[in-house]
Amino acid sequence: MSRQTIKKTVLGLFAVIALLAIGAAAGLWWERNHVPAGGKEMPATAAKDGRTVLYWYDPMVPTQRFDKPGKSPFMDMQLVPKYADEGGDAATVKISPDVVQSLGVRLATVTRAPLDLNVVATGTVDFNERDIAIIQARTGGFVEHVARLAPNDVVGSGTFIAELLVPEWAALQQEYLALKAMGDASLEAAARERMRLGGMPEGLIREIAQTGKVRNRISITSPRSGVIQTLDVRPGMTLMAGQTLARINGISTVWLDVAVPEAQAGSVRVGQSAKADFAAFPGKPVQGRVTALLPTLNDVARALRIRVELPNKDGRLRPGLTAQVSLKGTGGESALLVPTEAVIRTGRRALVIVAEAEGRYRPVEVVLGPESGADTVIVSGLDEGQKIVASGQFLIDSEASLQGIVSSTSGSADAMPAPVALHEADAVIKELSDTSVTLAHGPFKTLSMPGMTMAFPLANPQLVQGLKVGDRVRVGVRETDDGLLVEKLDKTGGAK
């Protein structure tokens, strides 16, 4: 190959390289000037309306940012622009109406209304200790006959218990009949009084006055219907005056010993109406009322013991039966209420998302009171009439956290943290130890958590004292930063 040919070839190669370099530079210029957000390092882009776009993001996955618009790789929706002028109030987050609609955000209003403090707890039937009859011998004598009865038998009013022979009565009755025959009214009245002081019932005295016959035997009968708790009389016994023969407890009314969780104890008052649902009688609730708040607290379950009195005309309610008791609040006192679903519980505090003008949302820390039906009482943090987010608030709170927004509080810096009520469900113990318990539990409705079998840590080893595998319990858990913590285990029935 000649030198001239080689020179032409080299010049041709340089020409090709120059053309490729010019093309690459032109392509880069075109991408930077005609492709929106083309490249990770390019500056903020101007939107059609002149507003500066910092980045695009998916509201469902706000931690991931994109440098150009398009369809989200996570959800079936378009990416949303984040504008530079959306700073506004440092304590608020702004969300466009389109995003609010796609998130299904639903608003509610803070209202003031009378409290409807309904409390649900478990109770056990016991005897009404005020409905007791003690049968005693009024005078000394001998037991001649005893009915075929035993403790725990149910008897009616007037049921025969025993027949007694009282020798002393014969002399008193003969004296009375002799003075009555003399016709001296004052002496007859004195003899009648001596019989009365001798322990004779008024009915027997009238019978002797009418028939003129001596009766030194008397039948002892039950003064009321009920259950024989003790029966200390046998044929041939010698009785002393005042000796107890039987103890009968009426069952026309019964007591329910109800354990109310400590967090709801302030909602219970004497005179409050109560409805008891018994597993033994499904669909047949019994209405009663609270008659006493007992002075002792269950230290293990942290529950207040209250007494509910129930009518028992047909006698079907017997001691030992368990019931689910609903205590209805009497109302009257009013308070600020928000839907329970609007409250965000973090374990250490409670938040509510307040909706403000121009699509801005502010997380506000609140102090919670008791639950009232489907609502929760707000002690402080909100005002009547404010708009709050009842659905979709978790996504808004997540966006606020990403932007470093801190929730505002209405109280001082040393205000007490919001009290959080226990979340309760029915469960069966599968395994237990001093530090944890495995439960097959039903749904925790206040947590929107379905029923399942899982292990929970215990707040106190004393919670499992007296419990064993297979026991049915009412479990109460509290949300913490480390998960759910069991703070209540109330036995509700026998082993499964």
Tags for this model:
single chain; 496 residues; alpha+beta; conserved putative lor/sdh protein from methanococcus maripaludis s2 fold; Elongation Factor Tu (Ef-tu), domain 3; OB fold (Dihydrolipoamide Acetyltransferase, E2P); 4 domains; eight-stranded mixed sheet; six-stranded antiparallel barrel; elongated
Structure description:
The structure is a single chain. By secondary structure, this protein is α+β, with helices and mostly antiparallel strands. The protein folds into four domains: 106-116 and 333-409, Beta Barrel (conserved putative lor/sdh protein from methanococcus maripaludis s2 fold), CATH 2.40.420; 119-129 and 251-328, Elongation Factor Tu (Ef-tu), domain 3 (Beta Barrel); 132-249, OB fold (Dihydrolipoamide Acetyltransferase, E2P) (Beta Barrel), CATH 2.40.50; 423-495, OB fold (Dihydrolipoamide Acetyltransferase, E2P) (Beta Barrel), CATH 2.40.50. Helix content is 18%, strand content 41%. The protein has six helices and 33 strands. Strands 5, 7, 22, 23, 24, 25, 26 and 28 form an eight-stranded mixed sheet that branches. A six-stranded antiparallel β-barrel has the order 8-17-20-19-18-21. A hairpin with a 2-residue loop joins strand 2 (52-58) and strand 3. 27% of the residues are buried. The model is unreliable at 9-43 and 410-420 (pLDDT under 50).
